[in-house]
Amino acid sequence: MSSPPTVRLYARPDCHLCDEARDGLERMLAAGAAFELEEIDIDGDDDLLRRFLERIPVIELDGRIVSELGLDEGSLRARLATLSR
After folding, report:
1. What is the H or E stretch that residue 59 is in?
2. At residue 4, does pLDDT exceed 60?
3. How far, rounded to the nearest angstrom, does the alpha carbon of residue 3 sit from its chain's CA centroid?
4. Does the pLDDT of residue 1 top 60, yes or no?
5. Quick check: 22 and 11 in contact, CB under 8 A?
6. CA distances from residue 80 to 14, 44, 60, 83 in whole angstroms, order as listed
């Protein structure tokens, strides 16, 4: 069996939208969604900070951004469904 896909949450400390996105992703996991969650603090990488500062939280799955400025659960679920086929 292959390992579940990785969802990356690009975020930074003291970001309420990032906290909301993380909470939503954790709720999805608790409800049985099949993915690994990796959180990346953009403050630790100048390139990521430049790319994502005005767009966080940014959620990426399988190398593709599925939502910005918050969790779009519908888009993430749809993308997860295409990967599980």
Report:
1. strand 58-61
2. yes
3. 17
4. no
5. yes
6. 28, 28, 11, 5
Return d(Cα 81, Cα 85) in angstroms, integer: 7
pTM of the shown model: 0.93
Q: Which of 44, 47, 41 is nearest to 15 (CA)?
A: 41
pLDDT band at 19 (very low <50, low <70, confident <90, very high): very high
Q: Name the helix (H) or strand (E) containing 75.
A: helix 73-83
| Distance from C-alpha of 25 to C-alpha of 74, rounded to nearest angstrom | 12
Domains of the chain: 6-83 (3.40.30.10)
